[in-house]
From TrEMBL:
Annotated source species: Chryseobacterium indoltheticum
Gene3D superfamilies reported for this sequence: 3.40.50.2300
Superkingdom: Bacteria
SMART domains documented for this protein: REC (SM00448)
Record's keyword terms, sorted: DNA-binding, Kinase, Phosphoprotein, Transferase
Response regulatory domain mapped to chain residues: 4-132
A single BP term in Gene Ontology: phosphorelay signal transduction system
Pfam family, one: Response_reg
Protein name: DNA-binding response regulator
Entry-annotated residues carrying 4-aspartylphosphate: D59
Gene Ontology molecular function: DNA binding; kinase activity
Alphabetized PROSITE patterns for the sequence: RESPONSE_REGULATORY
């Protein structure tokens, strides 16, 4: 099993809960911090001393307080640690539920496991640790289904631009002006209407308001 684990979690009660989970799994060599900057410092020191961590468990969002931090959240921590130690295994333990954001953590940040803070999350975390140790990415079944639903329709940058403009309150009839000013094609009103109608049909959505809400829930806008 993992020999050296680092926990980065800003809420004390949850930090203690993760420690308890590791103790239940008979781990005795783990350390914990409450700030991303401290997590990076510990990782760098461990590398210098040739005793690197082999697993990082981190939250995704960190609340700001009176301690200014260079690294603002889990994404920045993951990117910084990956530069120092590319082969480090990483599990994100977060309350985030948006499938678009979770999918991005695997595809863009290369995490190895994701556990959502919820009922029975201790059991899920134990499963994640075992899977990641065996070089298998871990995502709970319910979240897998949500991510699969997202990937059934691959949103293009053009799709996201259109929906983002709608979410900002731009009327559909005024979108062509924005696209033309930014040299984005196709930019005719008929092309935009056709694309939005196709999106709604593919996703089983009846109007633009529902389309915006759906994309916000996925975390793609």
């Amino acid at each position: 099993m993992f020999k050296k684990i680092l926990i980065s979690e800003d809420h004390e009660s949850i930090n203690i809960s993760v420690q308890k989970t590791l103790e239940d799994l008979k781990f005795d060599n783990f350390e914990y911090v409450y700030y991303c900057d401290d997590a990076l410092s510990k990782a760098q020191k461990a590398i210098r001393e040739k005793k690197p961590y082999d697993l990082l468990i981190t939250d995704l969002y960190y609340e700001e307080d009176h301690h200014p931090q260079k690294l603002k959240d889990g994404r920045e921590l993951i990117s910084a640690v990956r530069q120092e130690q590319p082969d480090l295994k990483i599990i994100v333990f977060s309350a985030e539920h948006k499938s678009g954001i979770i999918d991005s953590l695997f595809n863009d940040y290369g995490i190895n496991g994701y556990v959502r803070k919820a009922r029975h999350d201790s059991k899920e975390l134990k499963k994640a640790i075992a899977s990641v140790y065996n070089n298998e990415n871990y995502l709970s079944l319910d979240l897998k289904q949500e991510v699969k639903k997202l990937n059934n329709y691959e949103f293009t940058s053009y799709d996201i631009t259109l929906v983002s403009l709608l979410s900002q309150g731009v009327l559909q009839k005024n979108i062509p002006v924005f696209l033309q000013n930014n040299n984005i094609k196709p930019n005719s009103l008929s092309s935009i209407e056709k694309k939005l109608n196709t999106l709604k049909e593919e996703l089983g959505i009846s109007n633009n308001e529902q389309l915006v809400a759906f994309c916000k829930d996925l975390g793609i806008i």
